[in-house]
Records
---
Amino acid sequence: MIEQWIKEIKTECPPEKLGMLLIHNGIVRASAKDGQPVQSMMLSYDKGLLSNVLKTFKAKEGIADIRVWINEGKLQIGDDIMNVCVAGRFRTDILPVFQELLTIIKRDIVREDEVPVPRCSR
């Protein structure tokens, strides 16, 4: 997917607007943020909100294209959670957009419910 995005962006975007691409590939970890083991994750997201956010961010100065794919459903350890690509002119244009977009996706758009590893009762 990411390789295809890169080819498409290089072909579709005007060369004067394209100097850098940043890629994020989030994956399911084997442990929660608190360190507890996880066996899987249930993931869902708000498609309408994602669409609106992408329209806003694509209109920002220096941004040539943004692509986002979010996996939905029951995910196993090592599965891809999401891929995000922000393309634009300069690092100074792209980095703030990339960081803010990832923050909004994680905070407002996706819902991740980690399924803990069952504890043995003795």
Note: The chain is about 35% helix and 35% strand.
---
Amino acid sequence: MDNQPQKTGYKKELYTESARKDRFKRIAERRTNKILNSLRLLGNTGNKTLYLYTEDDVQRIFNAIDTKLAEIKGRFKTRKDDEKFRL
């Protein structure tokens, strides 16, 4: 038999608390900055001399953004599914 360790794909050091915090911070900052930049670019379309849109168009855009934002916020909330039912 070989004396080489088996490759399982699991790297324990990726799951330490500090590694998980660092990874979250790095990725969340990058993704948040991309979103903020995209929102800034979307705001540029508010220039009525360059773009023609209706109030309905604007409402549909922000409804879509609000819906997705509420969905994503829900993923960050702590769930209390483990609580037992009591009368």
Note: The chain has one domain: 16-76.
---
Amino acid sequence: MPSTTLIPTQARAHLTVRVLGAILLLFVGVDHYYEYSVGQYSVLPTIGTLFLLNFISATVVGVLLLMPLDRMSHRHGGAALKILAASGFGIAASSLAALLVSEQTPLFGWMEPNYRPAILIAIASEAAVAVSLALLLVLIHRGQPSSGKSRSVSKSGGSFTVKASQQRWHHMKSEPSRPRTPLEQPREVSAHRRDRSSARTTARLAPCARRRDRLAGDVLTDIEGS
């Protein structure tokens, strides 16, 4: 019973964390595009390019995370999901680190003036993406050894069965042959034994027969003499 209720719970938690991380990652991308277009970050030589690349990569990874990759490809869906989760985590973590650095020291010639509301929203969203996608990677990693263990258990069970059958065969092969019971003996052997038993009986009765013949001869001799 615990296995039937645990598997749907894990799948539901996996899907919830995955969708939450994807939506937050899309929000991070939209926020960077907003700062790029409206906040005039596009005029900054390196920062503007990084903001645009952040928007593109976050949008692509977020959309792919929302797609049912495990259903579309049963063979490569798990690996693709792990790569996407790691990529999204890298996008969020690098953006958060760059933002925190730019608040303390110039980064590529640009330094944020203060922690205005847009910066606080960016910090909160990027931290939430990093946490959710890191949790998704943990859930994916925990889900993999179970299949691996089941395969190892099945393989070990199969090898144990083969070894047990081989040991049983060797034991039967090395076991000394037991004597046959009377029911398993051939008919010739039983007939020979009957002949031997009848011969023994005849040999035992032969002295009695000779003694009887001798007494009968004495009686006949006495009758003739009288």
Note: Residues 8 and 74 are 18 Å apart (CA to CA).
